[in-house]
Amino acid sequence: MREIEKQTEANPLHPFQNRYQSQTRKKSNYYPVKLTGRDLEILEFVLEMKFASLNHIFERFFSITKKGEQARSIVFADKRIRQLEYGGFLKATRVYTEPTRLFLATDQAVRALEMSNPKQAPLKALKFINNRIFVHDKYVLESRLQLERDLKITHWLSDRKLCSGLINNFGLHYSFAPDAIYTLPTGERVAFEMEVAQKPKADYRKKIESFVRVLRNRDDSIQRFDRVHIRCVRTRPYQILKEEIEVFDDYFDLEFIETEREK
Question: What is the mean pLDDT of residues 111-129?
């Protein structure tokens, strides 16, 4: 016990680390890490978006220096992510279609987030990446980064957060939850939907109708979004949705993104 106390004094850690990681160091290969505010934001980001690569994390958290300049190297980000990995807060994994490592937030990351903000219940850590919807989730992640960069959107609510209970505030069933809800600089709330694989036309119609009910709802007890932003990466889903939203065109922004597969 004395050795642990001396080690804690010599290496002042995050309160969570002092209580948990230092006492279990002999039982694991984890290294003590003093979590910063940015570290906690990284862990929450990865937890919310399901996974992220080093490049994703670099763009979101390290691409602009404290002086407001463009970062010239990814080295510092790589070093910090490795420290979070060695500290047991991130876990590296791979998907056979990706050449780079992807990171998942761990149970230890969840506990650190709970300690930092007890009023907000964090999401559960994922044990693996769902290969079936990986491409879709990657498009959502990269869309978020692009929208935050170009449109300066804020307050991204992911489908994980929405399906954990928040979607009920919008009067929607979880099966009709959008991939995210974000806020524009104007204050408008936008439901974001990413369409990758083609679905039956009836499924598109049901979801569009559910969105329209929220858009037209004037009940103050239910939260609303003001528009719906749909991105498609396949020609056929885009064509079907274009037909389905024609009547409600004022509510929807339909966008087609050309990919290598579609060229």
Answer: 91
Distance CA 78, CA 180 (A): 28
Q: Which domain holds residue 184?
A: 135-263
Span 126-143, pLDDT tens digits: 999 999 999 999 999 999
Contact 215, 251 (CB under 8 A): yes
* β 90-93/52-53 pair status: unpaired
- Of the candidates 43, 22, 26, 150, the residue with the CA atom closest to the CA atom of residue 90: 43
Which CATH number does the domain housing residue 104 bear? 1.10.10.10
C-alpha–C-alpha distance, residues 214 and 126, integer Å: 30
Instruction: Quickly list DSSP for 99-128.
Output: SS-EEEE-HHHHHHHHHH-TTSPPPPPPSS
Residues 233/131/108/165 CA torsion (nearest 10 deg): 60
